[in-house]
């Protein structure tokens, strides 16, 4: 991939240079927003009982939620940040396929999960970021995930964002329903996300904030009560204020790469080939060379 700068996503072709545009969007233009959007994208998948049920049966999410979160984020970030055709990108996709190959996962569930990665960042930025995605950025973002999904063996993928949006909406409408495994995985996810920002003593104050960012179908599928109206109002004001401040700031100059973030899960670094293993299978890890 070409070196990334603060303006490198502005003049690329979304049909042929979609990976460069997606990388720029995720690490420069909307680095914080897209990371938050993808957190909620994963959260929305837990509202489908077949998905939450599989996670609950493996036991890994509840036993080591931070490790599973880090493994998922790293495996998705490796091809985005280093390139789908890079050595690291190919290794991450192979690892994703190996992990998913252990289980019987329907193509329909896989398509839905992929659709959340396509749709949630576009929706989040339209509502909460300094600006919404431009048309060519939406096309590039979609094309990137079509390429990724194809490499993961997912079939019958939509060809554009409108198709993914329809798939995402229709699948949620027909498959969101309450299940105990939804709530079990959602509770573990909420505790994990709150731990990124708050001491445990303040978790009771943080839980309504997370619920305030959920729509009614998601809340019902998780068995959650809606947040109080004043919490929703405070969250809306806070996000709007942040967006207004970010609009006044210069564009980020250096990319924020998630693969370079220090993580307590992997204090000595990580091997792509060992992501997704149980804690006992890779306690001493080292980072592969970045280049």
Commentary on this structure:
With 291 residues, the chain is mostly helical. It has one domain. It is 63% helix and 0% strand. The protein contains 13 helices and no strands. It has helices at residues 18-29, 31-45, 49-58, 60-63, 65-82, 87-100, 107-128, 135-151, 161-175, 180-197, 203-212, 216-222, 229-248. Helix 7 (107-128) runs antiparallel to helix 8 (135-151). The protein is globular.
Q: In short, what is this structure?
A:
This is DUF2236 domain-containing protein. This protein is mostly helical and 291 residues long.
Helicity, as a percent range: 55-70%
Number of strands: 0
| Total separate domains | 1
Q: Determine the mean pLDDT.
A: 91
Which structural class fits the helix and strand makeup?
Answer: mainly alpha
Task: Report, as a whole number of angstroms, the end-to-end distance.
Answer: 11 Å
Low confidence ranges:
280-291
Strand content: under 5%
Q: How many H/I helical runs?
A: 13
Radius of gyration: 18 Å
Shape, per Cα inertia axes:
globular
InterPro entries: MPAB, MPAB/Lcp_cat_dom
Protein name: DUF2236 domain-containing protein
Organism: Maritimibacter dapengensis
Domain ER-bound oxygenase mpaB/mpaB'/Rubber oxygenase catalytic: 60-236
Layout of SSEs?
Layout lengths: L17 H12 L1 H15 L3 H10 L1 H4 L1 H18 L4 H14 L6 H22 L6 H17 L9 H15 L4 H18 L5 H10 L3 H7 L6 H20 L43
Helix pairs in contact: 1-2, 1-8, 2-7, 3-10, 5-6, 7-8, 7-9, 10-11
């Amino acid at each position: 991939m070409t070196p990334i700068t603060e303006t490198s996503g502005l003049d690329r072709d979304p049909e042929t240079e979609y990976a460069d545009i997606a990388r720029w969007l995720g690490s420069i233009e909307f680095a914080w927003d897209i990371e938050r959007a993808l957190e909620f994208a994963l959260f929305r998948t837990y509202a489908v009982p077949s998905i939450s049920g599989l996670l609950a049966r493996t036991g890994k999410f509840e036993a080591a939620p931070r490790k599973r979160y880090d493994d998922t984020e790293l495996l998705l970030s490796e091809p985005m940040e280093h390139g789908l055709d890079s050595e690291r990108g190919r290794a991450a996709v192979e690892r994703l396929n190996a992990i998913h190959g252990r289980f019987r996962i329907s193509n329909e569930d896989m398509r839905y999960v992929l659709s959340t990665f396509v749709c949630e960042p576009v929706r989040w930025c339209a509502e909460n970021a300094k600006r919404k995605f431009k048309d060519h950025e939406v096309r590039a973002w979609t094309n990137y995930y079509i390429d990724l999904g194809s490499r993961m063996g997912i079939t019958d993928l939509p060809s554009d964002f409108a198709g993914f949006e329809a798939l995402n909406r229709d699948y949620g409408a027909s498959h969101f329903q309450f299940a105990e495994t939804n709530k079990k995985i959602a509770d573990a996810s909420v505790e994990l996300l709150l731990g990124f920002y708050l001491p445990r003593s303040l978790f009771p104050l943080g839980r309504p904030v997370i619920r305030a960012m959920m729509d009614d179908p998601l809340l019902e599928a998780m068995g959650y009560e809606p947040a109080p109206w004043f919490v929703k109002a405070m969250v809306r004001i806070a996000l709007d204020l942040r967006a207004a401040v970010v609009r006044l700031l210069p564009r980020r100059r250096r990319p924020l790469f998630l693969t370079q973030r220090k993580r307590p899960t992997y204090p000595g670094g990580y091997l792509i080939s060992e992501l997704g293993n149980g804690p006992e299978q890779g306690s001493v890890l080292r980072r592969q060379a970045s280049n």
